[in-house]
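In the lab's daily routine, each protein ends up as an entry in a very long ledger. A line of letters takes care of the sequence, but it says nothing directly about the fold. The fold becomes a row of whole numbers, each drawn from a learned catalogue of backbone shapes. The protein below has been through that process, and both of its lines are reproduced in full:
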Amino acid sequence: MSKVIIVGYGPAGISAAIYLKRAGLDPLVIGKDYGTLSKYPKLLIENYYGFDKPISGNELIENGLKQAEYLGVDLVHDAVLSIDEDVAGGFVVVTQENTYKTEVVLLATGRDRVSVKIKNYQKFLGKGISLCAKCDGFFYRGKRLAVVGAGVFMKQELDYLNHLSDDIFVFTNGKPLEVSVPNKVVLDPIVSFNGVNKVESISTGENNYDIDGIFIAVGLPSTTNFASKLGIITEKNDVVVDSTYQTNIPGLFAAGDVIGGPLQIAKAVYDGMQAAAEIHKFLKKK
């Protein structure tokens, strides 16, 4: 069991890993991609200390990963699907490929990058639209439900909901289905979520479907999904942390863009360094 699992390959996560490794701990870093810095391949970074020429986001991330590997940090290329508190203490982190137990988790996942651009999404969020099956599924037992998504995260949410209802549609919103599911699948793009005071139906370009509840599981779980499931306090989509970078969940820390503030690499690196120092103190007290 790793004492610390860091979720995220970005500057905050890798900086924290480097400082924790140098402090004598062996953090495990799990990341699926390079995050926001890799989304703009033509964008060059010219304002970060130590580079005499502009550098791309991908190059910067790769340099950080090489530095971490040089120090012996364990890096796992995988997607985190869920984080749960363990009844025995600490946390259970489930990925596509494995399950890990740990005493401490550091969320360094960056800003949520998957947005739902469907008419009335914001209007009905919390009024029939949910981001967490385990959090809200109980309220929709036996109801007519929809899960929006096409991959492994969708299947995870669907597997849970299938124990609560026999009438569930999967809406891929125009994306190809990536996994096998036993439910009815709608491949058409979604035009809108409809209702008066709460969700009542979903419209595609072809049909209208009466629905009592909708669960969003697009792409991979985001920080918002983790926060909803764990009960992490957020404010305007930022994870709230105290002066020690710890959330309201003991042992669960966060750093970088996910906690808000200036969205700058230098700030993320600083957050990672500070979070590592506080995690080290936290573990020494246990």
